[in-house]
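Human: My hope is that you can spare some time for a protein that puzzles me. I am handing you a single protein, as its sequence and its fold in token form. Could you go through the record with me and say what the backbone is doing? Take your time, and here it is.
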Amino acid sequence: MAERVTVIGSFVVDLMARSPHIPVQGETVKGSIFKMGPGGKGSNQAVAAHRSGGDVVLVTKVGNDVFGKVAKDFYAGEQMDSRYVFEDPELATGIALIMVDEHTSQNSITVVPGACGAISQEEIRSIDSILDDTNVLVAQLETNLDILPPAVERVHTSGGIALLNPAPAPVEPLDDEFIGMFDLVTPNETEASCLTGIDVVDRESAHKAALALQAKGVKDVIITMGKMGCFLLTAEQEALMFPTMEVKVVDTTGAGDAFNGGLATALSKGNDLRQAIYFATAVASLSVTKVGTAPAMPTNDEVQQFLSTFDQKAYWEQVK
């Protein structure tokens, strides 16, 4: 099997503004910076996987509009496989409104999925040959979910694994059967709380939430917890907490997507979960040193340079 990462996910155009603080209800705040660029969790994760060295195929859908052209131009510039960026004749390309606090780098996001919420079963069937040669399938919750079970089943049949990043946090509860068909789930603490009803605030509560997710049928669970790092619970019940890597934080907007993209790349190359998390943490750490989402994703050369100067021994001594 090829070292292929197939991402079925969203593309939206990010409309990002930075201001002294994120507005509360009814408040208008004068911002300092506005940027427009390619985004969407699926697209961001695909770009992160591609730039960090993965053999990536992205499956998404855009509208026949100017924002759809943003997607195609961007993928062409990245030299990414865009054969399966489908086009909807009626629905508009999705957008994300992103507000970033320029002092804390924290963010608030509203997503309108548009065309990427209407990927058809026929379009998924058209990628059967890709799924048959996929090592790691990556999915999120910004597309219509009915297309994911047949894709996961196809990947499993050929011996690949399926990763679910259950983001954004679901408004409606997800069926246990849906969650349980994935080999690995990677929620952040908010998403883990939504999925399990357990308030995830520390290692102990993360462990409880991970056990609750395993009870739904998932084999391995990684819960990302911002500055605290991430918690891993394996199918063999090995529980480990991984610290963050210290960098100068500029913008945290795409950190989760960077982590998942880096994780998929590492897993597709045969790394075990511990080594994959180490690599993914480096990818995520570098992503927050730049402004933006997809444009901030680091290259494999940048990741390797960063790790070459990193105190690996000290890091692994903190993993426990």
